[in-house]
Amino acid sequence: MITKELENFRAARRRSLTAIRVLSQEQTEFAPPGRWSAGEIFDHLLASERTWRTTLARLIELEKSGRVPVIVHEAEAMKTPLGTIPKQAAALLTIPMTMMNMMVPAGVTQYLLRNRLFAAQAPKSIQPSKGRSVVALERDLIESLERTEALLAANPGANWRRLCALHPVLGRVTAPGMLAMLAAHEDRHLKQLRELLASAPVTAEALTAVH
Fold it and tell me: pLDDT at position 200, please?
């Protein structure tokens, strides 16, 4: 098992659950123009975890079948200061971007991700849904973590550091790195949530819960 990385992700998820449990439905739907609501932030976290869990499950099956456990993530459409790069053009950048970002130490990537030191647009595949029930979001945050834990527990013999995804932005990400990325990503969006709630009609209890 990759105990340390999993526990760090559990701790990040506990912080998310602490936050969502003090928010009403109305508060989770509040959003200034052009920004995500709290509900959308939580739904995005779920979509991201689901995507990485699917990748991890595929890698486990590749290793079990005797194939090389490596998956290449193709770049999606990207917004840049010079305009939007369409998916077809972005796909051509997958290999050079991946090779470049493989040179960045994983710890540096996680630090940048956690501390919101660069702007990032979520890919279309993990864009959130609006107006989800706060009850459903809390339930899904709990159950999604349980599914990730179950996948890891069901494969104690996996060579976790051999399982690898090549990502155009995150570089080379091993299974432990996936959990570390999820924890950093969760913390990143909890900081976004704090900024959102600072301007939202919420109680002092809600503000305290996300600090």
Answer: 65
